[in-house]
Amino acid sequence: MADRIILQVSRYRPERELEPTTQEYEIPLNEEWAVLDGLNHVKDTLDGTLSYRWSCRMGICGSCGMTVNGEPRLTCATFLTDYRPGPIRIEPLHNFPVIRDLVVEIGDFMRKLPQVKPWLIHGEDTAAPQSELLQTPADLDEYKQYSMCINCMLCYSACPIVGLEEDFLGPAAIALAQRYNLDSRDEGADERLDVLSTAAGVWGCTFVGECTKACPKGVDPAGAIQRYKLTAATDSLRSFLMPWRSS
Amino acid sequence: MSVRYTEFHPRWYRPPMSVFWWAGRRSYLIFVLRELSSIFTAWSVVFLLLLVHAVSEGSRQYRQFLNLSSNPWMLTLNVITLAFLVFHAVTWFNLAPQAMVVRLRGNRVPRSAIAGAHYAGWALLSALAAWLILR
Hints:
The complex is a heterodimer. By secondary structure, chain A is α+β, with helices and mostly antiparallel strands. Chain A has helices at about 35-45, 105-110, 135-145, 155-160, 160-165, 170-180, 190-195, 210-215, 220-240, and strands spanning about 5-10, 20-30, 65-70, 70-75, 90, 100, 105.
């Protein structure tokens, strides 16, 4: 008989319970199965009422983030065999309201993200550029790491400040702001400064560093935030010492 | 227990955040201890200022300060302060490379070199302080 493993899955059915409960499912322990495959097996063969998000199954779409044994993980990139002999506890991402079972409400993140203007800004000119904006490989290296973010929100789940301060912009939004600030084609750093250099922006971060550990794409949001603190502090100091040079 | 309703959805479950959220995870505990170490850092500055003040007031005041410093409770406090100061310095030095991107001739200086420079600076200043006191 093949190996089997127990999944302890958090269930929340708002029409019948006030808070989440745990339901156990025993599934085959296949070597090549990720936790998401295990959940799909449950949904397909054991309990069709289980709700969770997923799409690409290959660490790109960022929709299958859940808390696996207390850690924020992409369930498509987390293998069952790593948790042998089990059981494996699967909960929704922390720091988000739960809509149903493993599905969380992400509206807060979706409202915060556009505040940092994560797109290329060309000064006052809103028209598309007439020619290509060339970059050297060194220019690309400046921001490439931050452009790998897939908006999976694992960093929001790992960050205690996100849970404690509801206004905090959060790791991914600030890292994405840095992705554009450090892009040689972008001229929007001054516009983003007003949003980023605030108590709800980079100064809300106390450098716990868990966002970077949780990131499945190696973005290092904690590093991005600390780098921006240096930029913002230098900027303030410069405008204090040389007010004639600030715009 | 009442169910909390929200505008666009009848019943989202909002997990409460415990006051002891930092106790269940090693990295959170280290973070909270690092934040707490700031109090001891501030105390070490106050203690140093008290010493400078006592020295400037003459030998009687200085002797009083020495008596105060040799109290068992003051010694205990200062041993704890030293431990937290070392913890403060080490944790921040280890985090420094994440915040600092230094480039030399177009190449990024490796993280180990940035942390190493911090430790080297610390060792140099400590040696200088030791030389001033012990010479």
